[in-house]
Amino acid sequence: MKCVYCCNEIKDGNFAREHVPPKSFFKKGTSSLITIPACRACNNKKSSDDEFVLNILSMSDLISINPEHQFHIDKMLRAVKRPQKVGFIKEILSSTHTAVTSEGSKNAFIFDESKVSGWAGINAQGLLVHEEHIEHCNYKHSTMMLNLLKVEFPDEKQLLELILSLTKSTPSKLVGSSEFKYWIQTQDEGYVVIQCFYEELFFLTMVER
């Protein structure tokens, strides 16, 4: 059996079940989580990225409005109090600013969009491995966070409408109670994967064959 990340054979005693998405994204005790094979080194290396993305997603006001997902905010607040999170907190605080939205002024912060989107792209490939469409997570791909698109731009509005139509017309696959769901569409040139975290945060990934 090969690791889905480094593609090396997994030696005896070096096997790790890689959760897609990570187990930490769900309530404790959630069953039927998706796992794919990985070596311990790759599994451990990815853990820091998992925690970074979870913290970023947990800070979204789209999650905070849903009481069912309050446990993620509580988890994030406990995590950032650890001494090793000082750098993360300083980075967030230094980017905090007031943003004017259609709902009025709100506090906002700048995050590493490429790191979050890159992580979501790898997670999307993990779902394709689970569904047996591809063999590993190293295919050429591109990912965007749909929540960052602007409806006032015609091209971006058209894309959002297309994705909305797809998610409404195609049944999703649910993992957990409401923490995660996804859609996979097969095309001639590859695969389209839509991921939805906590009912509000959407990512679109296109993976080439």
UniProtKB/TrEMBL annotation:
Keywords: Endonuclease, Hydrolase, Nuclease. GO terms for molecular function: endonuclease activity. This is HNH endonuclease.
